Amino acid sequence: MFSKACEYAIRATIYIALQSQEGRRITLKDIAKEIDSPEAFTAKIMQQLVKQGIVDSLKGPTGGFVMEPHNLFTTKLSEVVYAIDGDSVFKGCGLGLKMCNEKKPCPVHEKFISIRQELKHMLETTTIEELALGLKQGMTFLKR
Amino acid sequence: MFSKACEYAIRATIYIALQSQEGRRITLKDIAKEIDSPEAFTAKIMQQLVKQGIVDSLKGPTGGFVMEPHNLFTTKLSEVVYAIDGDSVFKGCGLGLKMCNEKKPCPVHEKFISIRQELKHMLETTTIEELALGLKQGMTFLKR
DNA sequence: CTAAAAAAGGACAATATTGTCTTAAATTAA
DNA sequence: TTAATTTAAGACAATATTGTCCTTTTTTAG
């Protein structure tokens, strides 16, 4: 469904969101530990999230990653996915055809439409804040 | 969603199904041409489909690939996907956690359940024969 | 001002996936 | 029986993805 990079990105963002809600800045090291991901690889992914404006970073001692209050409440799961995996999840043909569309559909085109729609809708209506809440309440987990 | 190999597998199977319905055996070369796929790579994929019993192969002149009438009507899309990509599409956690389940869910676990269910249901109820019919009627396409 | 801490960036390495090439085995038709 | 045709199989190559390491830049605290 998502690339490994994207999976890490989502997990990291949820964790940063949770910490930001508590007013805490969080280091790469802590992120990697908390979401059980390879640190250096996670660093690369964080750079993309920062460039996309989803999270902010600060260098130096006491530095780390943080989400602005505004981002915290408005960022949708879809934005994180898009930042890392692009539009492949939302667009692309189920059978890999480049020209697949209503006019010239692949054999599974119609079959995939509702599923893709539902997925798209879910990603676009789910907020990072909402996911962070479940984590805060101990109902969901980011490791193992 | 699916691997490239799986996309080719689905396209190839649909095309073989269509030809088998007409009583025709079809060569690798023709398959690759009709579904616009790399021939040698497609050969590897065909070997897997043969091993899984989804299609049959015959060597020598007049040889090629064919689907038995029985397979033609009973094979589900899910079986082709499973033969090539295994159960990753049906099982696996959306965020890549190994131990994600009802008891210890990842933050998107619940959100993904209905989507995965719908996808699973669609794959398990869609027959290859049905997809081949759309192709035969010129309503769907396997190239570009 | 300096040392330490942290992210940024670039080069590199490992692995997985996709794709190719060559030879072997089987089968058919002449 | 032989030559041609076709799939099977194995080794190899190219590319993409995942992951690591090292250096640079920025910032803070002392």
Describe this structure in words.
The structure is a homodimer of 144-residue chains. Chain A has 7 helices and 2 strands; from the N terminus they run H-H-H-E-E-H-H-H-H. The first copy, chain A, is mostly helical and 144 residues long. In chain A, helix 1 (4-21) crosses helix 7 and helix 5 (77-85) crosses helix 6. Chain A binds chain B through residues 1-2, 4, 7-8, 10-11, 14, 77, 92, 94-100, 104-109, 111-112, 114-115, 118-119, 122, 126, 131-132, 134-135, 139-144, and chain B through 1-2, 4, 7-8, 10-11, 14, 77, 92, 94-100, 104-109, 111-112, 114-115, 118-119, 122, 126, 131-132, 134-135, 139-144. The first copy, chain A, binds a DNA duplex (30 and 30 nucleotides) through helix 3.
Fill in the keyword field for this structure:
homodimer, 144 residues, mainly alpha, 7 helices, 2 strands, 56% helix, 4% strand, DNA-binding
Helix/strand layout:
Two copies of one chain form a homodimer.
Chain A: H1 4-21, H2 28-35, H3 39-51, E1 56-58, E2 64-66, H4 69-74, H5 77-85, H6 109-125, H7 128-136
Antiparallel strand pairs in A: 1-2
Helix pairs in contact in A: 1-2, 1-3, 1-5, 1-7, 2-3, 5-6
The structure holds a DNA duplex (30 and 30 nucleotides).
Summarize the structure.
The structure is a homodimer of 144-residue chains. The first copy, chain A, is mainly alpha-helical and 144 residues long. Helix content of chain A is 56%, strand content 4%.
